[in-house]
Amino acid sequence: MKFFIDSADVNAIREAVSLGVIDGVTTNPTHMAKAVKTSGKSSKDVLKEICSIIDGPISAEAISLKAEEMIAEARQLAGIHPNIVVKLPITEDGLKAVSVLSKEGIKTNVTLIFSASQALMAAKAGATYVSPFVARLDKVGHVGMQVVEEIVTIFRNYDMKTEVIVASLTNPRWVVDAAMMGADIATIPYETFEQLVKHPMTDIGIEQFLNDWKNASGR
Ligand code: E4P
């Protein structure tokens, strides 16, 4: 299973990379707007910096909504660095763009997936990745991980090459659930990484071991 960090914050990305568990990055316009504002750099320079930190797939989202404009924007984004994956929303225009871009060898991440049918359409059009959003589905009373399970099962049934990036992961348990289902990738915010490592029993154990050692050794 691959782990991506869901962020455009270069400091958070560097920190997560130092843990030795990161295979790639996903950004979105919200992340990018924040990074541009705090760094004073252009989005292109932020992307270049991210690409210099980690050698893996880096998703950069297009903001155009018409197929022709999406294609032009995707070509520009892909020209920034060979590791750039262009993120496009699941719409009819998005599918048209994915179909053209996949034939050009430009990698795509079809985003804002909220149903298995959307993921299936994106895979048929040639998407490299699909990103189902778990927390956002749960927020409106659905079970996000159920949608992930359906997508993983369908792709496995037909040996589809499209990889599943489980996204919108605010609960560390969902990372374990995604792994149990055999999802290819989890894209994880920095805060969720911290939760994945922490356990109160570990903290108690460390304290107890250190106390026992101090008492026995007199140090
Ligand atoms: C993934 O590609 C998205 O950037 C991200 O996971 C969205 O997460 P959110 O629903 O917490 O904003």
Q: Can you offer a commentary on this structure?
A:
With 219 residues, the chain is of the alpha/beta class. The protein has a single domain (2-217), classed as Alpha-Beta Barrel (TIM Barrel). It contains eleven helices and eight strands. It has helices at 10-18, 29-39, 43-53, 67-80, 92-103, 116-125, 134-139, 144-157, 172-181, 190-197, 200-217, and strands at residues 2-6, 24-26, 58-61, 84-89, 108-113, 129-132, 163-166, 185-188. An eight-stranded parallel β-barrel has the order 1-2-3-4-5-6-7-8, surrounded by seven helices. Strand 4, helix 5 and strand 5 form a beta-alpha-beta unit. The chain is globular and about 75 Å long. Bound molecules: erythose-4-phosphate. The site of erythose-4-phosphate has 12 residues, from helix 7.
